[in-house]
Amino acid sequence: MFRRSFIMLSGVAALASTPPLAALAATPKDQLVVAITMSSMRGLDPHEINQLESAEVVANLYERLIVLPADKIAEPQPGLAESWTISPDGKTFTFKIRQGVKFHSGNALTAKDVEWSLRRLVKLGLAPSTDLRQWGFSADNVEKLIRATDDNTLVLETPEVWNANLILFSLASFSTSVLDSKFLADKDKGGDMGREFLQTADAGSGPYALRSWRANELLIAEAFKGYWQGEPKMRRVLLRHIPESAAQRLQIDNGDVDVAARLSSTDLGALEAGGKVDIQKTPGFGYYYLALNQKDEILSKPKVREAFRYLIDYDGLSATVMKYYGIKQQTIIPPGLPGAIDKNPYKLDIEKAKQLLAEAGYPNGFTKVYYATPVTPEYEVAQSLQANAAKAGIKLDLQGGDHIGKFRNRDFELFSARSGERLPDPHAILQSYATNANNTDEAKLTGLNAWRTAWDVPKEIQDMVTAAAHETDQSKRAELYAKINEAYLAASPALVTSFQRTDAKAVRKEVNGYLGHSTWLTRWDTVTKAQ
User: What is the pTM of this model?
Assistant: First the structure.
């Protein structure tokens, strides 16, 4: 606690005596400077956040039982758990907790901290808690099912048998980060278990400790000298809030920042041509999608849903605004995962769309309100769809803005955005896109995209999704997922997928070891700079 206070005070003094960051000619050799957009960063509590930018910070302030390397994303590796065993019935996971790990406070990390952290995640019940709640953990049973039997052993029991990888993948997510329970003991306010404190502070054991954060301005993290894997080469990491793509492009081109994380395709193309940076395109487990509200009499017609498939300019967008941000894909399971198929049967075809609309009873088209996120590349994709729909007789009243709340409450007609899942397994995506156990408004299954669209997913598909998640035989799972993939495509779903999400970043060539991570856990302690 005293060390943390000293760091904060010394950090303020150092900033006061340092020239403004914008005035630096080049970034120091022992510091990493990243340009990001902080507008979506609401806090830094790993059991609350659900944004890519915050997740990257948390990935470096905290650690987890399991590690999924960026280049071997589906192969669980030891993290805070140096080893683990699984009972013959597949329901009990026993983890041996690594000894000698220290929190930033100086406290020793033990199995008791892991127990408290995982229980806290479930009890808070916020969005990230889905990573454990979906396997049957609840506030009522978590104290019985997750327990430390001694300082070095954690036992986790699942109420049902699931494929073991699903549990291990969940324990590698930023949501299951391990917190310093002793340090947080006196930070509780009204039973929040330190939630208010952790909005702007950290209680982790990761390679970096939070030094300061000024919302929508600057975040500074310092290398943790007591880190169990050794002190990182970059002694300081600075995240700068630069929301404009043109400004990010200028600063990385000039060498004022090392990484730029929110650039337009135009600016990415110009930087790539300039030769000073490498462009990383990290495939994610999510999609750019168009949601059609099935409570709408017109949009609920299968042939109308199918018509929208022919109004997306897949190839044209691939060569322009989606060049760096998406990979054309119309099926629901990303390449490289069990059950993936190489199949994109749709293309832009205005006449085919007109034919389907006529067969559905709307030869003259119709008018609908269309909500889209006003950021690159989502809005450009929406504008393209609007123009193509007009040619088929559909007038879309395109409205930009933050309409995610309306989508979550089913209060929309058409909505488009992008999704991102954190588990490198088909179930993570299918749970949201292809399950909807209760389609009533009262169910409030707001975490599921299928429920948000009021799509009553065919029971055959939902049953297969559940069966595949429970299946312990990997080859049988792959067969099931391939069947689900085909069935989903044939169902003319209310969620029209067009591009697999990729996260594009520009990285200066002298920076080594900064690797985009498909589950948002990009690490800073692997970074070095060419001298």
Answer: 0.87
